[in-house]
């Protein structure tokens, strides 16, 4: 049943719309809301014998490719905040090319939907040789990465068929947010924040349903962008990953050039591209970076940029300079979980662009779901 398209035309479309359910399954049995005496907490059974070692590690290194790497990028801020341990990210092939240092005192976390990606698997073997603790975050029980790691967490997102990863991405972020809660100390000073994140996780499926209502709006936007050569996506902080992942979706399925840009780097190159023709999505939802993003919007506007701003519901007036930009309003969630919501309109945009441009949605040319050769 899981692998037919049901009422949908394509697997990618089905998998985008399935996200309220896949997130529910990812969190099932792992979040404890607590009654009057029980505190809110997280239970990750696959890690319970290794949490002490993880907490004592001198560094946590996340390793993956493509969308799985982007998911780790989205979760890094909350992992750093709650664990207090330096968190670094590695694209598997790059770690292998450099033979970068991995130590016994490191925890390495291998993020892979399929659990079979050749570069990630080889990086895992490399980390094992170097004596690091190896943790897997995969969607495939019994996969090579799940079998080879010391311990791990299954994301339980259900079978993903579309080559472009969608529901696995949001489930991976949620698992890493739960991992951050599991590693972090449950101190009095962190209690309010931890509880807000747990409440936020519980609310995610309903917020996901809400953001999926943007489907028609994203189809309209796709109609507007159908003939474009290129699309830039600006993000920062929690949503730097949204920019990279949104651009990756557009390029891999719609076959349109697209680039995710760290907004803080705007003046170091990307600004030269801005004119009245190139469409630019700016992710500017409410978080600690909001005023910086407002300033980015002003600067892009001053250069006549063609702006599409993603903002928190009710914020259209504060982000739309001169009333000339297009706005995508999304529901607000706890800041560190906002990437789970913000990617959805961009998944929908990539999907509709692909259909309208007449390309193969589920099997984009030259790409494979699981890259098992190097
Ligand atoms: C391929 C797929 C991507 C995926 C990447 C990593 O490129 O097309 O959707 O993100 O591999 O795959 P993994 O299974 O390791 O997450």
UniProtKB/TrEMBL annotation:
Keyword Transferase belongs to the record: yes
Catalytically driven reaction(s): D-fructose 6-phosphate + L-glutamine = D-glucosamine 6-phosphate + L-glutamate
Keywords tagged on the record: Aminotransferase, Glutamine amidotransferase, Repeat, Transferase
Listed EC numbers: 2.6.1.16
A GO biological process held by the record: UDP-N-acetylglucosamine metabolic process
Residue ranges constituting the SIS domain according to the UniProt record: 50-189, 221-364
Name of the top EC class for this enzyme: transferase
Associated pathway: Nucleotide-sugar biosynthesis; UDP-N-acetyl-alpha-D-glucosamine biosynthesis; alpha-D-glucosamine 6-phosphate from D-fructose 6-phosphate: step 1/1
Source domain of life: Eukaryota
GO MF term set: carbohydrate derivative binding; glutamine-fructose-6-phosphate transaminase (isomerizing) activity
Name the UniProt record assigns to this protein: glutamine--fructose-6-phosphate transaminase (isomerizing)
Source organism (scientific name): Buddleja alternifolia
Species lineage: Eukaryota, Viridiplantae, Streptophyta, Embryophyta, Tracheophyta
Full-length numbering of the shown residues: 301 to 674 of 674
């Amino acid at each position: 049943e899981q692998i037919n398209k049901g009422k949908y035309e394509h697997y990618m479309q089905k998998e985008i719309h399935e996200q309220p359910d896949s997130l529910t399954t990812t969190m099932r049995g792992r979040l404890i809301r607590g009654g009057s005496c029980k505190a809110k907490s997280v239970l990750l059974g696959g890690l319970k014998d290794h949490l002490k070692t993880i907490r004592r590690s001198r560094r946590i290194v996340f390793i993956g490719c493509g969308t799985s790497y982007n998911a780790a990028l989205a979760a890094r801020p909350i992992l750093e905040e709650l664990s207090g341990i330096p968190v670094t990210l590695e694209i598997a092939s790059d770690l292998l090319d450099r033979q970068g240092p991995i130590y016994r005192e490191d925890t390495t976390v291998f993020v892979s939907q399929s659990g079979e990606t050749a570069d990630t698997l080889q990086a895992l073997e490399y980390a094992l040789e170097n004596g690091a603790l190896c943790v897997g975050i995969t969607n495939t029980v019994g996969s090579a990465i799940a079998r080879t790691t010391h311990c791990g967490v299954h994301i339980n997102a259900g079978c993903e068929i579309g080559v472009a990863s969608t529901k696995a991405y949001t489930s991976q972020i949620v698992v890493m947010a739960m991992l951050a809660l599991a590693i972090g100390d449950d101190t009095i000073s962190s209690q309010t924040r931890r509880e807000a994140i747990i409440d936020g996780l519980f609310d995610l499926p309903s917020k996901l349903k809400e953001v999926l209502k943007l489907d028609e709006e994203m189809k309209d936007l796709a109609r507007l962008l159908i003939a474009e050569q290129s699309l830039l996506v600006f993000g920062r902080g929690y949503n730097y990953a949204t920019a990279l992942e949104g651009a990756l979706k557009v390029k891999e399925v719609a076959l349109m050039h697209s680039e995710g840009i760290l907004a803080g780097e705007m003046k170091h190159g990307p600004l030269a591209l801005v004119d009245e023709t190139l469409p630019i999505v700016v992710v500017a939802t409410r978080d600690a970076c909001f005023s910086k993003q407002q300033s980015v919007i002003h600067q892009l506007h001053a250069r006549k940029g063609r702006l599409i701003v993603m903002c928190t519901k009710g914020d259209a007036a504060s982000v739309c300079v001169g009333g000339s930009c297009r706005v995508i309003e999304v529901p607000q969630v706890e800041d560190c979980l906002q990437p789970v919501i913000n990617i959805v309109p961009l998944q929908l945009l990539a999907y509709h662009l692909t259909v309208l441009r007449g390309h193969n949605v589920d099997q984009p040319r030259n790409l494979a779901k699981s890259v098992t050769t190097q």
